[in-house]
TrEMBL record:
Biological source species: Aromatoleum evansii
Protein name, as recorded: DMT family transporter
Keywords: Membrane, Transmembrane, Transmembrane helix
Transmembrane segments: 29-49, 61-80, 86-104, 111-128, 134-155, 167-188, 200-219, 226-246, 252-270
Lineage top rank: taxon: Bacteria
Length: 278
């Protein structure tokens, strides 16, 4: 899991680097097209046409679109905000998932478990500061991305009971690649990418596919409720890489907000683990 999180932080770093020079659609296309090619090469020889079989094709397409929407929104946020702060705001997703699980999956959550959710959103306000000078459109993008990602996770839970893991991995890559290939001609500029940038674009798929592969291995070795609190280590990587690569380091209020989100998220993760045991 720690290796997967390091790769995801590197993926975000490369995405932010490319987004500073190119349209978001080009970056998202590179992310999903490379991921699609790698996923197809790995799983098609093993599963054949069974890779494409899904019990709920409509939901898989919607799920793929929500993940592509997440990537597009987050990459857009990278154009306006530091890496660590964007990553921290994405981590409101577990709070949103808790809300959606109650609303759409019928899961029950005791009253006391709403407290860390509310506190976590307080951490978001410290980073966003909607009444202060630090607020910008990047906050809107990243919170939109977090909402898309929460829907993606809810659909993943719903589809996990009917589709194999390889199919679950394949469809977001397929849908993301197809959607961005449709949009790409509108934003593509011939000769816009030099050799170094082509290599960076290719690395997006490698980093994404490798990160998801390591996460699958982690989930095979330990329950998701055990691994949940460790996911916040990605914030450490994001803060370090943001400082080393872009020279960005969160200010005091943002750091406090990040710590509040992490603390609240860990409480939500452990309460979910306790609730399932009970």
């Amino acid at each position: 899991m720690m290796g997967a999180l390091a790769l995801f932080a590197l993926l975000d770093t490369v995405s932010k680097t490319l987004a500073s020079r190119h349209h978001v659609a080009v970056v998202v296309w590179g992310r999903y097209f490379a991921h699609f090619v790698i996923t197809l090469a790995v799983f098609l020889p093993r599963y054949g046409t069974a890779l494409f079989k899904t019990a709920r094709p409509g939901l898989q397409i919607v799920r793929g679109l929500t993940l592509a929407g997440t990537t597009g929104a987050v990459v857009s946020a990278f154009q306006h905000m530091p890496l660590a702060e964007v990553t921290a705001l994405v981590f409101v997703t577990p709070f949103l998932v808790s809300i959606l699980a109650v609303s759409f999956l019928g899961e029950k959550m005791p009253l006391w478990r709403w407290i860390p959710v509310a506190v976590g959103f307080g951490g978001v306000l410290l980073i966003a500061r909607p009444s202060g000078d630090a607020f910008n459109v990047g906050v809107v993008f990243v919170l939109l991305g977090a909402c898309c990602y929460a829907v993606y996770q809810i659909l993943t839970r719903k589809l996990a009971a009917v589709d194999r893991s390889a199919t679950q991995l394949f469809y977001p890559a397929l849908v993301g690649a197809a959607a961005t290939c449709v949009l790409l001609p509108r934003f593509w500029v011939a000769g816009a990418l030099d050799l170094r940038e082509w290599l960076l674009v290719g690395s997006l798929g490698v980093l994404g596919a490798s990160g998801h592969f390591l996460m699958i291995l982690a989930l095979r070795a330990a329950p998701a409720t055990t691994l949940g609190p460790f996911t916040y280590a990605q914030l450490v990587w994001a803060t370090l890489l943001g400082w080393l690569v872009f020279g960005d380091f969160p200010d005091r209020l943002s750091l406090i907000g990040i710590l509040i989100i992490v603390g609240s998220g860990v409480v939500v993760a452990y309460s979910e683990r306790y609730g399932r045991k009970a």
